[in-house]
Amino acid sequence: MKVLFATSEAYPFAMSGGLADVAGALPKALRKRFVGCRVIMPLYSAVPEELRSKMTFVTSITVPVSWRRQYCGIFEAHENGVIYYFIDNMYYFNREGLYGHYDDAERYAFFSRAVLEVLPVIGFKPDIIHCNDWQTAMVPVYLKAFYDNDSFYNNIKTVFTIHNIQYQGKYGHNLTGDVLGLGPAQEQIVDYAGCVNLMKGALVTADKLTTVSPTYSCEILNPYFSYGLDGILCNLTHKLSGIINGIDTDVYNPETDNLIYKNFNLQTLEGKAENKKQLQRELGLPEDENVAVIGIVSRLVKHKGFDLIVRVFEEILGANVQFAILGSGEWEFENFFHEMAAKHPEKVAFKNGFIPSLAHKIYAGADIFLMPSQSEPCGLAQLVALRYGTIPIVRETGGLNDTIKDSGDGKGNGFTFKLFNAHDMQNAVWRALDVYSRKEDWLVLVKRAMECDNSWGKSANEYIKLYKSIL
Asked: Checking phi first, is residue 195 left (phi over 0); if not, alpha (psi -120 to 50) or beta?
């Protein structure tokens, strides 16, 4: 079986969120299971020079973008046993940042068409093209619209994964012909709710649809979660399923992680205590082994639950706790945590931005990891926290509901709450702190968390079953 994984980002080449982690880890896990999986992505200027220097130039072609043809360079690299192809066009991809440009629709229409156009050139005919989020949504649309009568593309199937349904690629109708290159008979494929919706096009043309957790695949049938697409999805449940993400256990491994202060495992948990001490020291917090350090590594946006945190933050500070917070996002939350760190320097440390090395140190050094999301398609941070023996507190939504079970029954691996309510979250914090005060009980919970298997193995097997079901 041969699979081409089409993505707008992939670790370690270009990253902005969880999609990059998936694209870096899932193909590797598939190859270990004898699936010939390769990855294709844009060649951004953000790709580090040390990785770019390892690439080899394959060839160049031109790719149709509506009525014009654009240069398309093809580069190849090998990383962790996986072959990566990079689509080069400096006009589209030599820019600051990956997304957020005025012509993103054209950039990713070009990329989607290039995914299909390069296949005969690179000599790789996949059985399945696995597309991800709106940036690759036009791949199944173009495959159906332009390549149905081409023998090379016969029998190629498509899978489309929704990583976050909030971002759909919505644009005005003026793009249909001039940018997307769709004729009058094809416009209805992407037409939805008075605009062009690229994700909608993928939903109706792909052979299978997946989300990144079973709970999220049910939630997006509800208008509260679907951002307007429930009307389409409720008619497509026959091809919709949810497969939980895993994490790359080579990257996130407390035994070998060179970004943390001291390596440790289940047998050497004194190493975790040392990570806590060093984290407190680096962040300027009092070094106290008895205080519970609550870690937060996140984008600071409302749907991550920061309204709840702000509402009861100072009440929680009344307990014997410290906060280690890393993130950036909406101004109101950045400003709030700056103020809290200035007002309570012995309790709150806030670093604005995303610093991978510090993220790893917080995962390893904190006792508790707070993640009260309003919605969470899958979530990776809670899985990383478990790997490092840091106990998650989460709301029961999306992938958080599928991966974290409340320890109130003596079997769970964290603490959960159901309603999107600040005091329900606060009650979960109080329950966690109560168990933390009983050191032997807490140690049992830490060990149970570290024993959780959230590697890509099980998920990769589920994807293989899905691929086989459509071949």
From this structure: beta
